[in-house]
């Protein structure tokens, strides 16, 4: 069994509601790189 823990990438700092926060461009990159590695292996 494998257990993989992954955090989300960097998100916007200030929004009225936490669930409205969008990933920054850097945050998208942070999330995409590990996802690509998981799919490749």
| Shape field | elongated
Q: Percent of residues in helical segments? A: 25-40%
Given helix and strand content, the structural type is: mainly alpha
Question: Taking all residues together, what is the mean pLDDT?
Answer: 91
Poorly predicted tracts of residues: none
What are the SSEs and their pairings?
Layout: H1 25-40
Describe this structure in words.
This protein is mainly α. It contains one helix and no strands. The longest helix has 16 residues, at 25-40. The two termini are 15 Å apart. The model has no long low-confidence stretch (mean pLDDT 91).
Short recap of the structure:
The protein has 41 residues and is mainly alpha-helical. The chain has one helix at residues 25-40. The longest helix has 16 residues, at 25-40.
Features:
single chain; 41 residues; mainly alpha; 1 helix
